[in-house]
Amino acid sequence: MELLINLVVVLHLLGLAAIVGSAVFVARGVPTPALVWGARAQLVTGLVLVGLNQAADEPVDNTKIAVKLVVALAVAACAEIAAGRERRGQGRPELVHAAGGLAVLNTLVAVLWT
Ligand code: HEM
Questions:
Q1: pLDDT tens digits along 33-55
Q2: Tens of pLDDT along 71-87?
Q3: Which end of the chain is more exposed for a tag (fewer CB within 10 A), N or C?
């Protein structure tokens, strides 16, 4: 079980890298597939991690998880809306920046909320 949890944590960290790498470092202001799929992956892998930790009787901080879920939903909303607007030729770079910034915020919550 521990190996499985650690493997999903790796996927979770790759999702983080896809969002922040894409939004902040690579395609500033342009929504890439990596941004959109990274945001989706964070929701899926995060929820799987909660389930696996509970199944393994590991403690889960529900308040922290609730905050992370709300922030991750905001990241995904920003990424999806930015991608939709981009397809219609109405780019919204500020939404891409917001997705990257909120992902960094969620990283701070993940690491500093003890
Ligand atoms: C943009 C969205 C997200 C980012 C950037 C993010 C970031 C992170 C990071 C960096 C860690 C590793 C922290 C550490 O091990 O010290 C982590 C762990 C974790 N995240 Fe997220 N996260 C996001 C969304 C979510 C969501 C939506 C959930 C659940 C609803 C979630 C649940 C968890 C759990 C349970 C762990 C602990 C894994 C473990 O140690 O077993 N995350 N997250």
A1: 999 999 999 999 999 999 999 99
A2: 999 999 999 999 999 99
A3: C
Query: Is pLDDT above 90 for 28?
Result: no
Name the residue of 3, 6, 12, 60 whose CB sits within 8 Å of the most ligand 1 atoms, as the mutation to test its pocket: 12
Q: Which residues contact 107 (CB under 8 A, 6 or more apart)?
A: 16, 20
Cβ-contact 30, 96 below 8 angstroms: yes
Q: How far is the CA of 12 from the centre of ligand 1 (A)?
A: 7
> How many angstroms separate the Cα of 23 from the Cα of each of 6, 7, 18, 98?
26, 24, 8, 9
- Joined tokens for residue 4: 């499985």
Residue 20 Cα: closest atom of ligand 1: 5
Task: State if residue 42 touches ligand 1 by the CB under 6 angstroms criterion.
Answer: yes
